[in-house]
Amino acid sequence: MSYLPPNLRNDDANPEWMNKGDNAWQLISGTLVGLQSVPGLVILYGSIVKKKWAVNSAFMALYAFAAVLVCWVGWGYQLSFGDKFIPFLGKPDTALDQKFLLKQAFLGRFPNATMVYFQFVFAAITLILIAGAVLGRMNFYAWMFFVPMWMTFSYTVSAYSIWCPDGWLSKLGVIDYSGGFVIHLSSGVAGFTAAYWVGPRATKDRERFPPNNILLMLAGAGLLWMGWTGFNGGDPYAASIDASLAVLNTHICAATSLLTWLLLDILFFEKPSVIGATQGMITGLVCITPAAGVVQGWAAIIMGLMSGCIPWFTMMVLHKKIRLLKQVDDTLAVFHTHAVAGSLGGILAGVFANPRLGRIFYMVDYWPRYIGLFYGFHTGRTAAGFRQLSVQLVGIAFVIVWNVVVTSLICLLIRLVIPLRLSEEELNEGDDAVHGEIAYALWGDGQRS
User: Fold this and answer.
1) Residue 53: pLDDT above 50?
2) Predicted pLDDT at 178
3) Where's the Ammonium transporter AmtB-like domain (predicted)?
4) The three-state (H, E, C) secondary structure of 294-353, written as one string
5) pLDDT digits (tens, 9 = 90+) for 264-282
6) What is the pLDDT of residue 367?
7) Angle 91-191-274 (CA atoms, 0-180°, nearest 5)?
8) What is the pLDDT of residue 79?
9) CA-CA 20 to 30 A from 254: which of 94, 135, 139, 308?
10) What is the pLDDT of residue 1?
């Protein structure tokens, strides 16, 4: 017996434009990305820091996830993907109206409600990645102000410019398949900038900052790796062959990068570092993100080799030689793992982007765009290949400049109201002083730090 009211038809719940498979895959992908943050990065942050910062670090991630969602449905989504207001920003509006949520999304065969959810988890993880640069000393109250301000004035601009069809970089033809620019380059640059303004950790923390639980760190890292299936697999907005290719390329690049970083650690430091392998995994995932569904498998392997080498070199060699890098206390090396790896991936997308795959993903047949330099040489369209590479560099430059300026302004404004950095007493005590709570009731070694 049917319990549907007589005025409600099946077409109301499943309109002709909606594809149930695509809608289901999009919701699953969004949830996989959400799991990267909660519990993935919550666990990773809570375990990769000293014991006395476990609660604070995990809570910074959890708070950001919740705060971004409220801001996202309140105004963030429409600023990022709504009707055009200016070339790099949509009109401010809420994403809560039922008529809007049940209509077809701007791309894909599913409703706006699905798109709002899917895009939210990307915005949330970006803020959580920024937190990685300021763990162990940023005032939690300052963080509470920073999250909604940065999401509003920085993330929305990058998202609209690159991902919204009306965005100026989107029209220019920038390839950012799933957030190499919007998420990773943005978070890496913003995190490094915020770390500069917040200041360094306490001297003893900066000199020695061992993880309190490496096994839990690996569990968080594993959730991050597997969650990337939805991170890159969901961006075709369809359960398509391009989604399948993106997922496979993602894991190929991550594995290659992890092994490359591991071998470099063994070669130069004579120790197979678990933390180093985790860093290599992350740089591989970040590097493939802007190109996941527009490159072939052999290119994903090359990108994995390079993402295992170049961020390793900037972190292990250049970081000790360049004054600015030594001066800024970037707790989890977010600059290297996200800004450097994200830029590298964006550049390599401009080199290895397969024009056929680009046409499948972007649903266009426009040769001057979406053709990597390698294929430009191979097909005799050298000018188109150089054009794509130059467009990628323009996108990188814009994201860097915008995030340095906006993040600095936000930190300076917050500093007028509340200290960015914890007091010396709180820095010495950690979680107990900041939250009145500690992660471990029993200290196995008798030490509180």
Assistant:
1) yes
2) 94
3) 24-440
4) CCCHHHHHHHHHHHHHHHHHHHHCHHHCCHHHHHCCCCCCHHHHHHHHHHHHHHHHHHHC
5) 999 999 999 999 999 999 9
6) 65
7) 130
8) 97
9) 135
10) 43
- The per-residue pLDDT for range 151-184, each reduced to its tens digit, is 999 999 999 999 999 999 999 999 999 999 999 9
Distances in whole angstroms, Cα of residue 81 to Cα of each of 87, 166, 238:
12, 9, 18
**With contact defined as beta carbons under 8 Å apart, do 156 and 76 qualify?**
yes
pTM for the model stands at 0.94
Tokens of 184: 């990773």
- Distance, in Å, from the CA atom of 389 to the CA atom of 250, rounded to the nearest integer, reads 21
Q: CA–CA distance from 39 to each of 32, 34, 212, 430 (Å)?
A: 11, 8, 17, 22
Closest CA to 393 of 174, 240, 229: 174
Q: Let me know how long the chain is.
A: 449
- CA neighbor of 381 nearest in space, from 392, 363, 367, 394: 367
